Here is the input.
Amino acid sequence: MRRWTATTRPIWAAAVWGRLLWLKAFDRVTVRSAYEDEVGCLKGRQFRFSVQGEVEPDGEADAPAEVGTTVSLDGFKRPFQQSALKTVEAIAREVFEHCIWYFLRPGGAPDITVADDDGAVSLNSLMHDFVYSDMQRTSIEVKGERFEMVSLRLKSSPRNLAPRLYWCAANRVVVEENLTSRVPGLYGRLKDAESSPFTYVCYLSSDFLDSHVRADRTAFDISERVPGTPLIEDVSMNDIRESVLKEVESILAGPLSAAREEGKARVHEFVSNRAPRYRPVLSRLEQLGVSVDPSMRDQDLELLLHSNLQKLEAFVLAEGHAVLGEAGSAQPEGYEERLARYLNTVTDINQSDLAAYVSRRRTILDVLARQIRSDDQGKYSKEDAIHSLLMPMRTDSNEIGTDASNLWIIDERLAFHDYLASDKTLKSMPITGSDSTREPDLLATRLVGSPVLAAEGGTLPLPSIVVIEVKRPMRNDNSEDKDPIQQCLEYVKRVRAGGVKTALGRPIPPTREAPAFCYVLADLTKTMVDRCEYASLRPTHDGMGYFGFNEPCKAYIEVVSFDRLVNAATERNRAFFDKLGIPSS
Here is the structure.
């Protein structure tokens, strides 16, 4: 049992109505109160209450020795008991930190002692442990009303790191408000000139707040904002808050400046190493007043930068309409300069978009490199994982956007196709006219430009056909019945034999000469090398793949090991990665 004693006036009603939340953590509460009657005689009353018995008056208490009240909280419930502080010192510090305003207000606080069998701690003695320096008292004026501010630099504890504003009235805290990020640089703990960390808190009081506090002292009868321009200069909560924050920024000028510089360094470090897409617009985002907590997580910082980039894009869009709308009229003074600023901002945003695209490629290659490695149990990713990275399975280009596939990993030209299908039956593809239920991993047609035919208006350009087979890393069961090279060639034959159409459904004249390209993505295990040799393919110069041309099928064939696939894609994009400062490997 913990017992708090205080020299106070009787708290009969407050204990009954204001502290029923005690019963969430305790089975029962007993209150003993001693007071002086009209003639100065010492009297005592006591009662107890619980969830089951509600309030049970106990009549007259034993003859008290002095004025005061004792509250006994019994039956500490286990869930609260397990997470509660245990030592007298820890409990005392927690109570003091919660009630510190009572020690700062006019008249001070009663003598409160936290005690158990192991010792006792007087809360009045803890001020030095919590506050670095003397209280800084300032005042502000808001529309003729005067407000007093008591600013404290608390020695921060791990349990309480947020800067706060306490709205006080009737000698007690009424509203607590978190000030985190309300002033640029005000995040968690700050550092003073000696680099000692502290948490800033402010206690605000005034006669105006006293006269507008509600009867239950849990809020104020003050409008949050006063709309429009009223005839009477009413004071709103927002008016008061803005004046307080302006004063806070003045009081903490030095620590806030240091915090902003630290936050700026955090942003530059993140952009340089993790998010280069923001580098072209970073200076513009800083002009928007972007200020961050140096301890912010990477994902939260990414969201913040992205949000502000969207604001910048919205601003530029509106500015573009305004600037270009003036192009045909008599141009106002400064138009050329305004137009130049607009175009420069658009250029920076476009560079950011390009940087985001290149960064995405770097990320995709990193994911692919991880997928082709073995895990802790020596197992490799299944074909589906790599397949879905190249293109979502069981979809076609009529169902997904152009950025959903990553076939540029294999060949940059595959980004430009007329029709692309992933893991769908030949029968379900509108371009084939085939009844086959076989499923190539990836199949694409690409309309090859033919300026002469297009100019003469003869026929549509002939489509090229691309088939891609993906095998599980280090799979070693390729055989005559499971020959991925032969499977690709069979798919090519079936497509050529069907009523081929464009993605828009227009028929293409039948031809057996359409160029075909077959890619097999597989590690060069023994059985895979055997299939390459049976198909008369030649090894690449680096020994990490095979290639050749099948004359009967008019098809170019390339077998690419996963290491060669990642290396080649990385080399093709190296110039972009280097330009953005992204590691190429």
